[in-house]
Amino acid sequence: xxxxxxxxxxxxxxxxxxxxxxxxxxxxxxxxxxxxxxxxxxxxxxxxxxxxxxxxxxxxxxxxxxxxxxxxxxxxxxxxxxxxxxxxxxxxxxxxxxxxxxxxxxxxxxxxxxxxxxxxxxxxxxxxxxxxxxxxxxxxxxxxxxxxxxxxxxxxxxxxxxxxxxxxxxxxxxxxxxxxxxxxxxxxxxxxxxxxxxxxxxxxxxxxxxxxxxxxxxxxxxxxxxxxxxxxxxxxxxxxxxxxxxxxxxxxxxxxxxxxxxxxxxxxxxxxxxxxxxxxxxxxxxxxxxxxxxxxxxxxxxxxxxxxxxxxxxxxxxxxxxxxxxxxxxxxxxxxxxxxxxxxxxxxxxxxxxxxxxxxxxxxxxxxxxxxxxxxxxxxxxxxxxxxxxxxxxxxxxxxxxxxxxxxxxxxxxxxxxxxxxxxxxxxxxxxxxxxxxxxxxxxxxxxxxxxxxxxxxxxxxxxxxxxxxxxxxxxxxxxxxxxxxxxxxxxxxx
Length: 495
Ligand code: C2O
Ligand code: CU
Prior knowledge:
Elements: H1 4-12, E1 40-52, E2 62-68, E3 75-79, E4 83-90, E5 99-101, E6 125-131, E7 136-141, H2 146-151, E8 156-161, E9 172-178, H3 196-199, E10 219-223, E11 227-234, E12 241-245, E13 250-255, E14 258-264, E15 273-275, E16 280-286, E17 293-298, E18 305-313, E19 346-354, H4 370-378, E20 387-389, E21 407-409, E22 414-421, E23 427-431, E24 436-441, E25 450-452, E26 454-457, E27 462-468, E28 472-478, H5 481-485, E29 489-494
Parallel strand pairs: 1-4, 3-8, 9-11, 10-18, 19-22, 21-29
Antiparallel strand pairs: 1-2, 4-6, 5-7, 7-8, 11-16, 12-15, 12-17, 13-14, 13-16, 17-18, 19-20, 22-27, 23-26, 23-28, 24-25, 24-27, 28-29
Bound molecules: CU-O-CU linkage (C2O) and copper (II) ion.
Residues 427, 478, 480, 483, 488 line the site of copper (II) ion.
């Protein structure tokens, strides 16, 4: 069981220090992934509410939209090897934290309340040490009342640039942020983000769809016959998309920021790539001639949903006399993340399942416990339990407790984890602090091995992933945020 005193001390010092459950024996070292000499970039980050015309011009504005630094989908960018020191200020009226999704940060900067830090109260600050050891496309978001705060827009993008990519010669870069809004379409007010019906099934969907915040699918100009790098992210709390392009000349060149041997969309079953919440892809698209379009769709809905239209233009910056040439997808430099030794790996099996009722592995905190009160008041935990991993659910409501770790692993050792989804719904499963190799799926054949931080599991599918364990306390959870908030989260300790 967890050390009550450590938790209470952490809660008392809310916002000031991280804390970790210590009664399990040795507390993991919070290991840095860059040398001390790495160049440091200090930046101020705040989260606050603002008004946004989400329903479009001439419609009621929406209050209580949440953004970082006053910018919807704020994008941070830095060269690989940089250390970001982020002075974060919580200007929201509620508790929050910041999690750096997919970035291999020391775990005390991982932003998971209450596992790695106490929630940051309104008006308080916390400094995150965010080393950027790997190039790629990442994002950041709260890990406390995620369903509510992300639902109202609190998502930032993070691009880690590799100078070696410059010679690939992309002509343009464009972001596609898939994020719906749960709004009353008459008055622009937010609807309840968490519903029992949604949380216990596929999740509660937004009422209006949007790309990059706009309910009108963006039209973007790009050099005719040029090479576009699309950075696509599903930042929605619920929606899974089947990403596809109306062209033969498109290939996935990175998944969750990690390079892979280019995977032409035309070679994939149904020419689509399925992406659940939190998943990213980089896509190389070759533009057609001037005035011609490439339409990018989500084919998962009965009626394909247009995400974005790319339009070929002869812009002044366009190289004169550019002609159509054969499409050869550009390969990014190979990823350099720590790789598992699959042959010598230990095996772990996880079942993603519905909760069979409250299964209490540890003592729940009594409701009058100061920590229980602090955390319930914090809205950092959900109120219902619908899901479990190996019969363990993350604490919710009155059953407030940190469950025991799913496993205690050895720092530097390799593990193969099989994840079997025995529910009727898809679950995009995310492991913090690691980039893992997706080894196999019982349902999808012919997919080359690739690296990721979030992997889709379909009903009755077993997916195998492998990774080299890194020191820390790391959560493993479904990224459908209502699922996570209703039990579908566990944690591993690596010492
Ligand atoms: Cu996007 Cu626990 O993470
Ligand atoms: Cu789920």
